[in-house]
Fold:
Amino acid sequence: MSQIDPGTSAWLRTRNDREALHLFLEHGALTRTRLGELSGMSKPTATQMIARLESAGLIRPVGEVAGSRGPSAVSWNVRSDRVAGVAVSMLEDCIQAVVVDALDRRHPIVELEVRGEPRSPERDIDRAIDAACAASGIERRTVEVVTAGVQAAVSSESDALSLTDSLPGWPSVGARARIESELGIAVVLENDVNLATMAERAFGVAQQAGSFALLWLGVGLGVGVDLGGRIHRGAHGGAGEIGYLVVAGRSQRRGAVTTQLLGSDSILALVDAPAGARYPEGIAALAHHEPALRTIAARIAVTVEPVLAVLDPELIVLGGPTSLAGGERLAELVADELRSDERPDADVRLSVTGDSSVLAGARRLLVEQIRTRLEDRIPTW
Structure:
């Protein structure tokens, strides 16, 4: 948007239009009268704001609201077909994707098989966009931005990825640039556990926590660290890569890497899953396997003790497929394992953001980006 002098008529109109757009996004469909009440503007001014936003293609009439007296009033709402995004979660054996719009409406989640497919950053994201748009019935041309959760350490500044075992065909440097160049869209790459941590802060059990750490137990391990509402990523994006930590003590053999203790293969073995069983389906009965739960709880305690010692978070959240399968009983046992004279009130809770928490975090980022893009389309009248 071009610069305009504060205090001029053009500046006031643009400021009013931005405020009106924010109110539509916050409250949904509004009549002229309701927009005036919420904004504190007169009905004529509210009418002018609606006319300008409609002329810019940012809102449209969506219905009528019957009043107690007189004719029905027209209501307007933000157009969700102007700008869209796609949230992507790059998993070990598949790609999950979902369309995101300015109104944060629910769209179907799609899963794409990756076994046997040629892989590259641009091809993976291209397939995800196509599938998500087809499932939601939206035009691909409206997709302007993608946020992808990857199982890797992400350095945004240098466009670098490390620890990319689950991303065959993805380069260690330049993945984002390749996607943006080939597909003509803006891309945000983010560590998947960091996205799940954002979802827990926004929608989950950590909304009121001053600080917390989310321990993700899946095929591998990771820790998302939230300090006062901000994700701690480290100097090179590698903060929280706890799956490579060597631990010793308690009942574990000395020198064990945490992924050997709590990775998917170890959990399948603990629940005596039949040969050929796949994770996470093969651990569905974990919540009823008390010996396995106790062993896992002890291993979790050894894994998170360094996090507690260094960061002293207010809360530990257990997330990921293994945690969800273990349920509240697993959280109780971990709290018992961590409780000591020095730490009598270890607060351990189970994530409540579900099995799509990575996508939920990506969706939250995308909604903000899409709304900013819509706001930038407001003309300087």
